[in-house]
From TrEMBL:
This is PucR family transcriptional regulator. Residues 471-526 form the PucR C-terminal helix-turn-helix domain. Gene3D superfamilies: PucR C-terminal helix-turn-helix domain. Residues 8-124 form the Purine catabolism PurC-like domain. Pfam families: HTH_30, PucR. PANTHER family: CARBOHYDRATE DIACID REGULATOR, DNA-BINDING TRANSCRIPTIONAL ACTIVATOR ADER. InterPro entries: CdaR-like_regulators, PucR_C-HTH_dom, PucR_C-HTH_sf, PucR_dom.
Length: 538
């Protein structure tokens, strides 16, 4: 029997089903069937598929219901089967009108319909030339779908798949890091020999010292639409075994659904977390008890004192920046480094993506805190992220009370803005490093501040604007070393005599480092200049 919508309506499981719209598409070819388990079904469905649903994922979303059939038709699906009454009292009239207009079959299912069985019947009809393989696929589908619908996690799904096919199974992420193995090889040493040059076609897998040849494994991408979640591998099997191939594809689809569901849940939790943190940073939560109790719902042990670390990727490509932020969040790179270096539990660290940077809260009450400890951790983080380009890290002062969080966050953010002005490469900056700027910011007379900068540094600024040589960088260098010229020359990678020449030029431009009082005024003027420049006003 040809696999069309018309013939699917003749199947036993569709007894009592009624075509209520889109009759012009009755002869649409059907190659597959899908259950609608998540609202964003469009990322994993395939063209020429029949979607089976109760509308549960979107039954409260009128907009989503209004847009469902046009979107499915645009994806070249074969049609949709809806079982009403349990979650929606009736199939919306707008859906019927859309189905008729688009020639998109809309089938009303009777109350006794078993959706999983209907999907299986669709699959049986479309794959009737391979009935033996289909039965095995259905067996895999039923077993794993049962676990999926029960809410079982990846561990159970991987283990069940391995048991069904009687072969070891390995789950990789997109970078071919091994994330999980089935129990039958869990105690064995499993690794990739050629990880730096790896792709799905040239894996050199080693298990317990034995290299696994390509003929003895099958690997499949776990993908939903444009989203890739990693790879699923079956080891010690015949690559030509179609049953294994079909089972692997089915398992990959179900795992993609599991990843997609988990991502949706995490995204929702992340949004709630970000909203909660914004409320604290905007001083909308003043009760410590309220904040601590709410933080517990996110697995966060919020205790004081705290320190805020603001981390920003200072790259121009927004797509790359977003992907790197997502990678850091998903893999908990920052939290794991902090936890390891100061030996505190992950629940005492919380990271959120706020205003184009990662904001990290660290409970510093459980160890002997000092500035140097966090500065060293920040250096380790910068080294770990050097492949991501320029990175800025700002560290706040120690926070004793919840109402101090907004100011501390502002300090950490300001640190990055100041650091961007001072550094061409990645940098870290602590609140104490620019404390004088925080005082300067309290002065309201901007004209007075700019006049002071012009009096002390005006000739220097004018020189740098008209010459290639930046003497302001030389001034920064000597200020950083407390006027230790030998150390300055070393830090700037220039000859000592070159530095002496530049210092003479600074003197000619009114920078007198021989007068102690004058030095103090120059340092103040320089800090005012840096503050204005960080705001783009100088």
């Amino acid at each position: 029997m040809e696999s069309t919508v018309a013939n699917i309506l003749k199947l036993k499981g569709f007894n009592g089903a009624k075509l209520i719209g889109g009759a012009n598409g009755i002869n649409n070819e059907v190659k597959n069937g899908f259950l609608m388990e998540v609202p964003d079904v469009f990322s994993y469905i395939e063209e020429k598929s029949l979607l089976v649903t109760t509308l549960y994922p979107i039954y409260k979303d009128e907009k989503a219901k209004d847009e469902l059939i046009p979107k499915l038709a645009s994806k070249n699906l074969s049609g949709i089967c809806i079982k009403p009454q349990r979650y929606v009292p009736r199939i919306p009239e707008v859906m019927v009108e859309q189905a008729n207009k688009l020639g998109f079959p809309l089938i009303k299912l009777p109350q006794g319909s078993n959706l999983s069985n209907l999907v299986n019947e669709i699959l049986e009809l479309s794959l009737n030339k391979h009935i033996g393989i289909l039965k095995f696929r259905n067996f895999v589908n039923n077993k794993m779908m049962e676990l999926f619908l029960k809410g079982e996690g990846l561990n159970t799904l991987i283990e069940e798949f391995s048991r069904i096919i009687d072969s070891p199974v390995i789950l990789f992420d997109n970078d071919f890091n091994i994330k999980q193995t089935s129990e039958n090889i869990k105690e064995k040493l499993v690794y990739l020999e050629n990880k730096q040059l790896v792709n799905a076609e040239n894996l050199q897998l080693v298990i317990d010292g034995t290299k696994i040849e390509q003929d003895n494994y099958i690997i499949n991408r776990i993908k939903a639409g444009n989203n890739s979640f990693g790879y699923l591998m079956v080891v010690k099997c015949n690559r030509e075994d179609e049953s294994i191939l079909v089972a692997l594809n089915q398992a990959s689809l179900l795992l993609a659904s599991e990843f997609h569901k988990n991502r949706a849940i995490l995204e929702k939790e992340k949004n709630y977390l970000n909203s909660f943190i914004r409320e604290m940073l905007e001083n909308n939560i003043s009760s410590k008890t309220e904040a601590v109790n709410k933080a517990k719902s996110f697995g966060w042990e919020l205790e004081f004192p705290q320190v805020i670390i603001d981390l920003k990727l200072l790259v121009q490509d927004e797509k790359i920046k977003r992907e790197n932020y997502e990678k850091l969040i998903e893999e908990k790179t920052i939290e794991n480094i902090i936890s390891k270096e100061i030996n505190i539990e992950l629940r005492k660290i919380k990271l959120a993506h706020i205003d184009d940077s990662l904001v990290i809260f660290v409970n510093v009450g459980s160890f002997e805190y000092n500035k140097e400890i966090l500065m060293n951790i920040a250096k380790i983080i910068l080294n770990e992220l050097k492949y991501m380009g320029k990175v800025g890290i700002g560290i706040s002062k120690r926070i004793e009370k919840i109402n101090e969080l907004p100011l501390a966050y502002k300090e950490a953010k300001n640190g990055i803005e100041i650091g961007k002005t001072l550094n061409k490469d990645s940098f870290l900056i602590h609140y104490e490093d620019f404390r004088v700027i925080n005082l300067i910011k309290e002065i309201k007379d901007i004209k007075l501040l700019k006049k002071y900068v012009n009096e002390k540094l005006g000739k220097l600024i004018e020189h740098d604007n008209t010459h290639d040589l930046s003497l302001m960088n030389t001034l920064k260098g000597v200020l950083d070393t407390n006027f230790n010229l030998q150390k300055t020359a070393k830090n700037m990678y220039i000859h000592y005599n070159t530095l002496r020449y530049r210092m003479e030029k600074l003197r000619e431009l009114g920078i007198n480092i021989d007068d102690g009082f004058e030095i103090g005024e120059i340092v103040l003027a320089y800090n005012i200049y840096i503050w204005f420049k960080s705001k783009g006003e100088m």
